[in-house]
Batch of 2 targets.
Target 1
Amino acid sequence: QDEPVPLAFFVHDAEIVASLEKTLAGQSVETEKVLDIIYQPQAVFRVRAVTRCTSSLEGHTEAVISVAFSPTGKYLASGSGDTTVRFWDLSTETPQFTAKGHRHWVLSIAWSPDGKKLASGCKNSQIFLWDPATGNQIGRVLSGHSKWITCLCWEPLHINPECRYLASASKDGSIRIWDTLMGRCDKILTSHTQSVTCVKWGGDGLLYSSSQDRTIKVWRTQDGVLCRTLQGHAHWVNTMALSTDYVLRTGAFEPAEATINPQDVSGSLAELKDKAQQRYDQVRGQEPERLVSGSDDFTLFLWRPAEDKKPLERMTGHQALINQVLFSPDTRLIASASFDKSIKLWDGRTGKYLTSLRGHVSAVYQIAWSADSRLLVSGSSDSTLKVWDAKMKKLAIDLPGHADEVYATDWSPDGQRVASGGKDKCLRM
Amino acid sequence: SIKMHEKRNTKQKNDEKTPKGAVPAYLLDREGQSRAKVLSNMIKQKRKEKAGKWEVPVPKVRAQGETEVLKVIRTGKRKKKAWKRMVTKVCFVGDGFTRKPPKYERFIRPMGLRFKKAHVTHPELKATFCLPILGVKKNPSSPLYTTLGVITKGTVIEVNVSELGLVTQGGKVIWGKYAQVTNNPENDGCINAVLLV
């Protein structure tokens, strides 16, 4: 028998916590009107908050600048300023492989949605592919960009279960789509006039890219043609997030079915593709994907890029530039981390402001949601991480311990661990 | 060999070394943060506290005699009584300071010489901030001046650093730090100090 799905009930956007009477007491409602009570399903599984630092993994000889868990939570990879990418064994929390090959800082890493390949981009504009099971390089070095790589994004699993294509954004203003099987560049998308800060591969055959030239461009991945240009920001667009981000990242892996020992998702390519497609359709629903972009002009914009050139909503309130935005895995909430030491929560569908999470004493660099969308972890330049409860809208747990700024944070998709790396060269779990 | 001789005077592009100071992609096009940060001095601070000794930037100061710091004020009908003293140097009185009844106060601290803020420089990062003073910790000339709150060159004062956003390793926010005065405030009209890290 199915487990009952927990629901949350809302009247006029206010959640009913105690009783309907108490919630209505605070609102002015006419007694003769019909009241709409909206229910929202919550995740069936619950992720417990991380409370303590289980280990401090040393090994990098320079600052750790990017950290990522594989889509099933089985592997952990970290890129650093000492030009290596290190793979860490999660069950023993010790170093597993050191992947050498880059000749400059490893700026961004991205796991393929099936968890079998890791792509890493460096400041010398080279991209390497690594095999997490052996730590060796797969294929050839992908070079072609003229300046450093800012962001990497794989093609979603439900479009191509082989995980063949990879998009890379660079400071030189171009986006390249690479064929990882043949080891060569498939398409080059040029239109941006300044550095491309972020690239996201959507689930509907569209590619989104944001740039320092204040625009976001929407491309068709089939032929590489520019579909739309979204304008509206007044300064650099730093970051973007898609409502279906989390489900595209985890592919065929369902966090509700996670086990204590993370395993690779098994099944033939067709099965994986079906599963990923099902999960994607469930999260997306009937509406097209939504995109939120954060910028140096202290505002965020909510777009429906497949349909409209005009933004749905302009979200203001931050007092310094926004460094990262993320949709929660169930797409109900948007969290934005900013250099004004606060994190703001917004409604995922309308873009309305919900609350501010304050507590950090310095710029908040990166955030990560837990798989059930109830908890949010944030890493900041004041060397602490804080876990926030999204329902209570308060601080749940403080995680001090880093000796210097925390540059990268990630929560594993099976919800068991949080990894963070920073300027003090050590990775904490 | 001859080739090595030729290479001796020309500059070669250094291919091997990767520069220090790795930053993530989102910080690359930005300058460093303008606020000062304490680097990994947490361990050094703990060791210093254990040893109980402080290395100060201004170790030796000229001791200031009483006749220099305190001026005799004559009172009484015939101006014969000479038990009152007025402080001629800059001093700090706390927030809740109220004078003793004027008839009975022995030490007069004029309002014009009372300061609340100091210009504090971080020695390694060379950034200066105007921070409120919390109190006078020690005046090297005399313990009497410490209790009075007299600030002269070499005095160790405590300043409010909550503006800098420093955090200890245990996650607590630091809001007070010691600084040592480096100028003669009565001559300059301002207090310049160096933060003791």
Note: Chain A has a mean pLDDT of 89.
Target 2
Amino acid sequence: MSALRLISNRTSQQALSNSDYTWDYEYYEYGPVSFEGLKAHKYSIVIGFWVGLAVFVIFMFFVLTLLTKTGAPHQDHAELSEKRFRMNSFVADFGRPLESERVFSHQMGEESQSLFHFCINEVDHMNKEKENQKGPSLESNTHFHEAPKSSGMFEEDLHCLTKFNIPNFVNTEQNSSLGEDDLLISESPIIL
Amino acid sequence: ENISDFSLNITDCTQVVVPEEVFFTVAAAGILENLLILIAVVRNKNLHLPMYFFICSLAISDMLGSLYKTLENIFIILCKMGYLTRHGDFEKKLDDAMDSMFILSLLGSIFSLLAIAADRYITIFYALRYHNIMTLRRALVILAIIWAFCAGSSIAIALFSYEAATVIPFTILFPLMMFFILCLYVHMFLLARSHAKKIALLPSSTVHHRTNMKGAITLTIFLGVFLCCWAPFVLHILLARFCPHNPYCACYMSIFHVNGTLIMCNAIINPMIFAFRSPELRSTFKKMFYCSR
């Protein structure tokens, strides 16, 4: 009988708490829950959830590392120069590799010097041609960029212009280089 | 009478209580860290770029999450000390407002991560047109739309939090966004891998697999941290809606405060894996601290 009274007290309390608003550490009013006759451990959902989450994260990690080891390079060598700088900055931002960065920067240093002289000439050349070709070159430029498997020479020209205009990863003077945006997009490519 | 049928063993699976000192320390650390990032981005003109604005958006949503938890704890303490009534109408409205702040923080985090991933994606795959695609104004417009949507949804969810119609979309949105972000990063990752392979073919290069291993580790950390910090809470909401009286669910829901602390830990970890990786931001911090001394 005392148990019945206890139950009625609790249920009336619960009814009271449902109608009135209480602010308590017991954030949710769960009400009476019976823990009799549990087949599995009572924290089974907690354990199962965390184990599942850990397995998923580890699985994701292994899939990503597998991606590094499998697959064959199918793009041609000509694109290498165009995307190498992007790859360098991408990797630099993602993983900060120490040795490979030195290798990259060394290679880039040699290449950038020669490209730099090339670019100076090209930029001067393009300035003259800027007035002539503006409209249709925009379409051709976007088309060329969207199809990455294009001729290597064109990629190198654009690549040299991008060196002055790399977003985000490299600390160039972004504000000053914005003026070269129009130059970059509206220029027609100079094919050697 | 069969008393065993009516046994109310609510002492099993009691609420796991996180000490208040731990709570406040973690929350304060999160708020301070993200505030520092906001100040650094505002003060340094070089950081007025779309990428940093998205990082700022993430910092704001993290700050909101920590702020919510702090305020909630303060109010509960005030309630216990008797300054606030427990049954008032004002308190209910306040609690609804704070719930919506919390959901705003969660939605803001998800969409900020999405924006950061999309920004990086455009940087990699549309590098030449990046400045035209992602202008500063467009970035601000995107952020305004994101935050307006998050604010609207959070208020709607807080008001109708007991309807199944709000809980289900909320819990579906979470894994959907994670999956989309994962796809973006995997695609970027594949590109980096193919380039690493090509560079390895060069005669003078000495690229190791360690390069891409670090990329894999970084990616896993990005998404793993977010998942581990937010998924427990999302599961809690699901269980609270659909099986509050099941003993297993009740035991899961008893660790609610641990889940809340995890969310605040996310606010501390996020700046480390997003903001502090940028050398420009780090140098701004150094200048801020050394100049003030």
Note: Chain A touches chain B through 80 residues (CB under 8 Å).
